[in-house]
Amino acid sequence: MIEFENVSMGFDKAVLNNITFSLPTGSMLGLIGQGGVGKSVLLKLCCGLLEPNAGRVSLGREALTGQSEEHLARMRQEIGMAFQNTALFDFMSVGENIAFPLRQKGGLSDIEIDARVLDCLTRVSLPTIANLAPSALSGGMKKRVALARAMIHRPPFIFCDDPTAGLDPVTSSRIFRMIDEMRTQYGSTCVVVSHDTGGLFKRCDFVGLLRDGAMAYFGPTQDAMSHPTVAEFTLGKARTQ
Amino acid sequence: MSAQTRVFLGNMAFVIKKMMGRKKTDRASRLRFWSALNDVGINSVFFIVITLGFVGTIMMLHGGYQAARIIGDSNLVGPQILPLMIRQLGPTLAGLMVATRVGTGMAARIGSMVVTEQVDALRLSNACPVNYLITPSWHAALVMVPILSIFGITAAFFSGMLTAYVVFETAPGVYADWSFVSGLDAVEALIKSISFGAVIPLIAGTCGLSTHGGSAGVGRATTNAVVLSSLAVIILDFFIGALILGLR
Amino acid sequence: MSWGSFVRSADEMLTLILALVTGALGGRFDARETWQQLYLVGVRSLPIVIVTAIFAGGISAIQVSAHVVRFQAYDAVGWGFGFVVFRELGPLLIGLMFSGRVGAFNAAELGTMKVTEQLDALRVLAINPLNYLVGPRIVAMVVMMTALVMVGNVFALLGGMLTAQVLVDVDPMVFWISLTDYVRPVDLFNGLVKAGLFGFVIGLVSCRHGLAVDGGAPGVGRAVNQAVVASALGIFCFDYLVTAILP
Q1: Helix, strand, or coil here: A33?
Q2: Which candidate among A219, B63, B120, C138 keeps its CA 20 to 30 Å from the CA of A119?
Q3: Are B48 and B96 in contact (CB under 8 A)?
Q4: CA–CA separation, A29 vs A40, rounded Å?
Q5: Cα B2 to chain center, whole Å?
Q6: What number of CA atoms fall less than 13 Å from residue C149's CA on the CB side?
Q7: pTM score, two decimals?
Q8: Does B231 lie at the interface with A, CB-CB under 8 angstroms?
Q9: What CA–CA distance (Å, rounded) separates C93 from A72?
Q10: For the segment A34-52, what is each residue's pLDDT rounded down to a tens digit?
Q11: ipTM (interface pTM)
Q12: CATH homologous superfamily of A25-51+68-78+156-241
């Protein structure tokens, strides 16, 4: 379960105002909204990279807000995040990138880690690239490697920041399918930000629409399309494209 | 004090706290230390030997022309400039060159990791960015800046000797007269180079971690790193020099 | 740096110089941009140059004093100091700081313009980036570097006199007299020639590295790094040449 209680966040000016929602365990939230509305900020609040100015964020039964560094470190082992610009470490090979969260967690032998890395790479259908440098990959491949790194430690919470940005429709739908498969297998709770509403709505259980710093809509996907605000957003987008 | 300065000082306090904290040493952290040694030390040797080589020649030319003009004898110049090379120009210019090469390199690397969210990814995997990105270079600089200073001083010594011989026809034996060099000069050089080694990675790393705002931000961070760490070298040089002068 | 890349960058640099000389002779540099750059370069670096100059003066006074104390030759402080600062350490340290402040900033700015395709946008508008961006910047750096070293000399003198009085008890008047007795105008002139040349090297190198940026934010960082390293090498190299040619 992911819970936001009256969360407000801003830097020089307010970005998110009084956000409250609760996402049940094992479900997937598709987060949509215009550029710069605070979707990425919301994701960083979810994984404790940012502290909210007010309110409380909790993952599972534990609050993420106001925790000590050590406690946060323990909670982060249950989090996987695929960053917007992939954030692959360019001083490591692809295989080392994916293995990194497991190595930091400790407790597994090198052989087990290698097997897990290969397994993860096979899932994202890139089994042969473990020894390449991230700079040698195309945009779509990087996105898939980032996904593999986010999921290598089978986290109960998965966050994906725009995993399909700038990709062709084929790769894009493939990535949504991969996220869906993995979270079903690990029973993870999942938040995905994307502008590809068509592909996203096929996979997610809930839809959240951010507008002017507030949750303009939060509810099940099947009701979302009939909601005027969501329809306006998706159709408006379709018209301008 | 501007908001930016406050944020920068806060970040620096954070970096110092993290660097002083206990951390585990494993194979990976040793590897990072070796690669930092390589980056700070081996890759800077060539640069420092070349620049300090010029400095030795320049000092000998200045000293020689002045001595010839005022005293009419340039044979005394060598013994006069050797202490200056050892206690001041060697360590300080080596420090400035490390600030230029290593400081900007660190800020550029860490800054681009910040704007491409790689630092966030490190934090999410519970790898402390300070211990991961700054501490290895800090340890490496503490070891390497004194060694680089010795290389630089040696380069300046030999290029000065060559200039003395070629331009002023001073025999190498007359030039290499160590009678004016005292133990205190060596102590001054050592204290200076160790303190330069300590502050340069600290300032450059903090500049890198304080980066925000895309490629323009990375440019700003690298600029700040070289300016602030060079300034720190010059200011430390002044105060350490004043302190040692008091002991003479 | 491998020989291949060295030859290539030397080749690019020569092409850049040739293009700039033709641009300057044809009077094609953008005048408004030149005034703007003169102002920006000066404003950006004046505080840092003043601080550097004061400390450079202090450092020189300390090091000269260490000699003077040994030989009890207090009336030589001003001579040694003036010579070291005006001819050598002043232009050198101010040049290195200027390279960090203005050169690095310039490489970063041009690099950012390159990666965000602003340079292409200029070309589309039929504006030659060399005459519009590079030429004015180099002119501004040569002029401002010379002017800043003049200002710096004054502050270095203040820093040196103060340090000599506080640390070795040399009366400022004694200091001043030994300075004016032995230091010749040619020493000052020599330092200013160096300053102008350093400004030129810093401008040329930082513009070249800025324009050659490739590959987003990491590319900009790398370019700044290379620009300051190459500027430092250029500064020492010209320092040597001027010292050897103009005794």
Answers
A1: strand
A2: B120
A3: no
A4: 14
A5: 28
A6: 31
A7: 0.86
A8: no
A9: 46
A10: 888 889 899 989 988 888 9
A11: 0.89
A12: P-loop containing nucleotide triphosphate hydrolases (3.40.50.300)
